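Quick one:
INPUT:
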């Protein structure tokens, strides 16, 4: 019986120039996240919800961009693949730590990078660093959402396999990846002997030799129906962890923070709630995601869960400290629906 799981056939390129050169959805996700945040922050600044002048939002976003890119890449290298620090090649950019074209960004590292950028930018522009942290926390969520969608389009960060009883007739919301052939099967030929034997007849239909398996995968992505009908029932059905995390880290987290900031809060409160809420949801959603390859578990916790535990503890402490200290409250989305505020903003 043909599996009912979704067969992943999405192209990672928005447009492609050569086999390896083009504009990828992952890059588009970053751009879309920054533009969304810039538009929203500027709009709310004009309505005096935020204490940041609209004409300064561009500089503010530039600082955030640097923080995300540098922090995200450095975080990935330090947290997940330190070997890149000593990896060098003869091709640009020569140093593995800089080879972002091969992928590898850490959301935890990006968050730390943004925090550092906000401290520096706030000090230079004499704006409350805690208030800037609150703003960035709220409007980091669109970027997190777009980034996870890009992960799904790229076919990376797979979820865990569905239980055996669901594999025979996999549900529609699960996902199968043709690249399982080249990324899993051929590296475990004893375990996947029957699957490899089943696709052997395809050698007469596609290119054989050492590139046979790669060609099978490529043909599946380009819509070769015979290849698809042969491999699809053999593929594992996985949890769509990228989409689960996209919903949790995007619209759900945004809604939580927006509801908390419905009325004015002391600076730092929203930033603390971001750390707490993100950490809790990341710990929960990682249950459906495979641990990063080559990164050891710690007491059954993945590296992402372990870092998120630290975020939860930090968030609790941060909320407690900023709730008790004397400070003028800021923000308050409820004011947008106030007749008096609307009239003031219109003038």
């Amino acid at each position: 019986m043909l599996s009912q799981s979704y067969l992943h056939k999405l192209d990672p390129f928005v447009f492609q120039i050569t086999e390896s050169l083009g504009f990828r959805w992952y890059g588009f996700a970053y751009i879309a996240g920054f533009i969304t945040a810039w538009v929203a922050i500027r709009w709310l600044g004009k309505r005096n919800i935020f204490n940041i002048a609209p004409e300064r939002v561009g500089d503010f976003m530039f600082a955030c961009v640097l923080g995300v890119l540098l922090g995200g890449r450095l975080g990935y290298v330090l947290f997940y693949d330190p070997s890149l620090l000593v990896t060098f090649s003869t091709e640009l950019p020569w140093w593995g730590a800089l080879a972002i074209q091969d992928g590898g960004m850490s959301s935890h590292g990006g968050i730390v990078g943004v925090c550092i950028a906000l401290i520096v930018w706030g000090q230079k522009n004499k704006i409350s660093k805690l208030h800037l942290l609150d703003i960035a926390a709220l409007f980091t969520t669109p970027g997190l959402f777009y980034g996870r969608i890009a992960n799904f389009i790229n076919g990376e960060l797979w979820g865990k396999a569905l239980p055996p009883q669901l594999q025979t007739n996999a549900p529609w919301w699960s996902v199968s990846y043709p690249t399982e052939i080249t990324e899993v099967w051929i590296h475990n030929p004893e375990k996947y002997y029957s699957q490899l034997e089943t696709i052997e007849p395809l050698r007469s239909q596609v290119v054989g030799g050492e590139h046979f398996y790669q060609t099978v995968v490529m043909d599946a992505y380009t819509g070769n129906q015979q290849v698809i009908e042969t491999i699809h029932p053999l593929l594992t059905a996985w949890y769509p962890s990228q989409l689960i995390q996209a919903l949790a880290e995007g619209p759900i987290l945004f809604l939580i923070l927006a509801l908390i900031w419905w009325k004015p809060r002391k600076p730092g409160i929203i930033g603390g709630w971001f750390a707490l809420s993100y950490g809790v949801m990341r710990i929960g959603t990682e249950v459906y995601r495979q641990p990063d390859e080559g990164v050891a578990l710690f007491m059954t916790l993945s590296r992402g869960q372990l870092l998120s535990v630290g975020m939860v503890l930090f968030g609790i402490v941060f909320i407690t400290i900023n709730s008790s200290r004397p400070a003028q409250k800021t923000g308050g989305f409820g004011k947008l629906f106030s007749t008096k505020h609307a009239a003031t903003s219109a003038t």
